[in-house]
Design goal:
Layout lengths: L1 H24 L11 H12 L2 H34 L1 H14 L8 H8 L3 H25 L3 H9 L4 H39 L4 H10 L3 H29 L4 H8 L1
Helix pairs in contact: 2-10, 3-4, 3-6, 3-8, 3-9, 5-6, 6-8, 8-9, 8-10, 9-10
């Protein structure tokens, strides 16, 4: 099953690249705006040989990794605390529902006002967007705890932290890993967006420079790099998720199939 999926995925990618090469060559679109895949590949090789490209890549990954780490830590801690204290659940419910739908890009003026084009502006947007992905999943996971298991743990005299460790956490972990995977993708999107709009150092700023200087193949090459980063992050997050949940029925069933 996995082998056939990989073959189909590779075939689909090859077909897409062939289409990207053929469409401008046939004159269906202007090559000045949509260059053939071969020209984009040449531009990508040039970028890979430029030290400034690797510096920009490092800046993007730094903002992504730091923002994601902060968001995951804060989301898990806040989610567990809110979930286990009924008063806090009721107190924060309306606030969470009010803040969660606010688009992170709406905070760009605030980020620029506070931190300019520094890394902290990127972190503000990345953390805000990623935090909700984790928090909501943790809250859902805690709600899924079996009341019978909870009451059994209480009857055996397990304290609060013991119940969190042995009852709540194993139930919530699949939700947490889903939240982390979603947050990882969102963090990359916001990191590149912040660099593109604010001008913070990174791949996004480099894409903006290529666009304004009419370096179209280089612009597409950098966009391809961001897409590959997203793919690698998603694959890595799924790998971590499968290893962390190797004991879980969903992963065991996936492996069996």
């Amino acid at each position: 099953m996995r082998g056939s999926g990989a073959v189909l995925g590779t075939a689909g990618l090859a077909g897409f690249l062939a289409l990207c090469e053929a469409v401008p060559r046939l004159g269906l679109v202007d090559e000045d705006y949509f260059p053939p895949a071969a020209r984009v590949a040449d531009a990508l090789l040039t970028e890979l040989g430029d030290p400034a490209f690797w510096t920009a890549l490092g800046d993007t990954l730094t903002g992504w990794a730091l923002g994601l780490a902060i968001a995951v830590t804060a989301g898990i801690l806040a989610g567990v605390v809110i979930a286990v204290v009924p008063f806090l659940r009721e107190l924060t419910a309306s606030t969470i529902e009010f803040l969660r739908p606010i688009p992170s890009v709406a905070l760009i003026p605030l980020a620029v006002l506070l931190y300019g084009t520094a890394l902290r502006s990127v972190l503000l947007l990345v953390v805000y967007a990623s935090f909700w992905q984790v928090l909501i999943q943790v809250l859902y996971g805690v709600r899924d705890v079996d009341p019978v298991a909870e009451e059994t743990a209480r009857s055996y005299g397990l304290g609060t932290w013991a119940r969190i460790r042995y009852v709540l956490w194993p139930t919530a972990l699949p939700y947490v890993m889903t939240g982390v995977r979603l947050a990882a993708a969102v963090a990359l999107i916001l990191a590149v967006t912040a660099e593109l709009v604010i001008g913070a150092p990174g791949l996004g700023a480099r894409i903006a420079v290529a666009q304004t200087s009419q370096a179209v193949p280089e612009m597409y090459a950098l966009i391809v790099v961001t897409g590959l980063l997203g793919l690698l992050i998603n694959v890595g997050a799924r790998t971590v998720e499968r290893r962390a949940l190797a004991w879980h029925q969903s992963v065991r069933g996936e492996v069996t199939v």
